[in-house]
Design goal:
homodimer; 14 helices; four-stranded parallel β-sheet; 418 residues; seven-stranded parallel β-sheet; alpha/beta
Chain lengths: 418, 418
């Protein structure tokens, strides 16, 4: 089936989901979870094919992301079951007004229609995205990475078996068969067929979507996250937060990439920082964090000098760019010029500085005295996540089921005219 | 000043508005309203220039839209004062959670930043848009039509005087000086400088924006609105609603353009419809409504035959396309294929048919037994309106102050790490 045919099929399936009640959707989700377990032999076999083909072409980290096991499939099934337990957003009345003329206006959450997701090699995204789309009443068109195609295809085959077992059309979950750039472009340009496109991937994919997409999109993921240590910060807490934000999982988008330090405390703080992130970690057998410093910070730290571009780079590694600033105002300006709008934190005991930072930093999540690593659907209490939006239109930050919905106004009258 | 320089200036002004409290914004709005009144001689003189230049080039209806008077300027000032009275959306906490680890997450409404508005010749849009943007914390960049440039420029000059009088920077309200297509394209492509673009205009402008825009947009306005008369409809109410929806103000986007009638009641209903929309109106000295009928309806009505394309046309005139259908399902399918997603109504006494219509019609406003003319910010109780969104992302239907805002998560902790 061509991508265009798949989109037509998906669009045609929308009314079925729009009319499905929560119970039928949850029944379908549980059947999809069961089908992953009963189909795990096929899924693992397909995954071995992907792994064989990828060996030597992609890094060990990427190979690990790609690899499935019985335990990982069980986790995927459990993830789907969790989605079944979440409240159904569709049909919720967000606001209700009765007007003086007697018409009753209900602003009601509604499915988007066809949601397309372009993602890379993690196979679990396939089942997560399918479950979240279904629960939010959306027909999904998934377009995964080339390296994971066999795995994704086996997973979608199992999910479709689950849908059929629950009496739902298999066309509610779809995997694009063409993994060339063509199919991604086709999704970006399918005006009228794709109601929402969510690109999940690196800066290159996001840029391509910004440049080329004609359908509504939500950009996700790229995170050049900043932490600013104010002169009034509790330096003990600051060390804990910075180590956590940088080094607990450096490959994720909510990890810290840039540290801004108030000039007045730098002589005391920076040597402690170097000990914490380098000496202490080495002593504990953990990977040390490379510190790329601007010239001022370098004069104190004596580590590496930051190159041009190091304050605009998502390292996704044990690397931190460090710069001194004169205070909260300069920190805010630096962030405005270099941030991707994901997550930023101020560490301070000065409530005025905190308030100014929160008001003026234009990012999805702005923290006072906590790690940027909390920017996550689960940590925010949404129960799930379809990605983290770094745009301002529609959804910002972690996207749960509500963010996958639009709304419409439903108005009841008994003959009113204007 | 070039458009690019204006955008840089606008972006630089954003922090001032982001930090302004409601009181200062309201004071600025009242000063802007006063400045329109004290500046009315200059505004009227500029408007006469526009009218002179436009005479002979645009229709009398358009000339009337363009014309200002003391009374119209007083209305514009009153509109700004009304906006000052509305609640301030910025900073409102939309959701608050305290997580088990003690961090407090507040989902907080925030300004978009720079909002650009491309519109046509009605001068009052200039002051309305400026007031709504300011109240919602957004710096506006207005790009009006060529025909109204002198009027818009005089209005913006007055508004800037009001801003200055209230101690606010004049750069919070900006009018693009270039009215060629170039400036519109520049706004569409100003990634990073325009946070939201709202095109307000005809189908051509909306299409250009869909095709070319790289910045976040909200499409507004085009309305091919349908009314479906079910077999169970109260035909007396139906005649009132249809006449109101079609003929009370045919030039607006919430006016009805297409009438779908259940085949079973057509022999009784259509002759009554013709009498109401043609004979009765002529007898009352009102413009009759031309009825363009599909072949089946034509066999009963005996008026004009609809041509190809008449069911995909926004007439904005005393013209109604009429088609027979076999029931609510066929009505829903016709609407899915031909609607612009603005407003549709079902007239029925059958609650199941009504429910099915409301669930499956994928438009901003779906009515049961009321006129589509109610789709309007004022009628919906929003107090104001920046246009009517026909898209699903972010805002749908009438856009008030809340819809001009994004949100961000503000998280307070005392050292939490993940």
């Amino acid at each position: 089936m061509t991508t265009h045919e798949m989109l037509l099929t998906a669009k045609a399936a929308c009314p079925v989901l729009a009319c499905a009640d929560s119970e039928s959707k949850n029944r379908a989700l549980l059947a999809m979870a069961d089908a992953l377990i009963t189909g795990q032999a096929e899924i693992l076999a397909a995954n071995r094919q992907d792994l064989e083909a990828a060996k030597g072409h992609i890094s060990p980290v990427m190979l690990d992301r790609l690899a499935l096991s019985e335990a990982r499939i069980a986790n995927m099934a459990e993830g789907i079951r969790q989605v079944a337990k979440l409240p159904d957003p569709v049909g919720q009345v967000l606001r209700r007004v009765e007007r003086p003329n007697g018409i009753v206006i209900e602003k009601t959450a509604a499915a988007m229609g066809v949601v397309a997701i372009i993602y890379e090699s993690r196979p679990n995204v396939t089942s997560d995205a399918a479950a979240l789309a279904l629960k939010s009443g959306n027909v999904c068109v998934l377009r995964g990475g080339k390296e994971a195609f066999s795995s994704a295809n086996a997973i979608v085959t199992a999910l479709k078996r689950g849908l059929a077992a629950a009496g739902m059309p298999e066309t509610l979950v779809n995997l694009v068969q063409d993994t060339s750039r063509n199919s991604a472009n086709e999704l970006m340009e399918a005006v009228g067929l794709v109601d929402l496109l969510i690109p999940r991937g690196g800066a290159g994919l996001i840029r391509a979507v910004t440049e080329n997409a004609k359908v509504p999109c939500i950009q996700t993921g790229t995170g050049i996250c900043h932490i600013y240590v104010d002169a009034s910060a509790d330096l003990h807490k600051a060390l804990d937060i910075i180590e956590n934000a940088k080094a607990s999982r450096p490959s994720v988008c909510n990890a810290e990439e840039v540290l801004l330090v108030h000039r007045d405390i730098a002589p005391e703080f920076l040597p402690r920082l170097r000990r914490r992130l380098q000496d202490d970690r080495e002593a504990q057998g953990k990977p040390p964090v490379r510190l790329l410093a601007d010239s001022e910070a370098h004069a104190i730290l004596g580590t590496e000098l930051a190159g041009p571009g190091d304050f605009d780079r998502e390292f996704l590694d044990y690397i931190l760019a460090v710069k001194l600033v004169s205070g909260v105002e300069e920190a805010i300006v630096h962030i405005a010029l270099h941030s991707t709008g994901h997550s930023e934190a101020i560490l301070t005991e000065d409530s005025e500085a905190a308030q100014r930072f929160c008001r003026l930093v234009d990012s999805a999540a702005v923290y006072v005295n906590a790690s940027t690593r909390f920017t996550d659907g689960g940590e925010f209490g949404l129960g799930c996540e379809m990605g983290i939006s770094t745009q301002k239109l529609h959804a910002r930050g972690p996207m749960g089921l509500e963010e996958l919905c639009t709304y419409k106004y439903i108005i009841h009258g008994d003959g009113q005219i204007r």
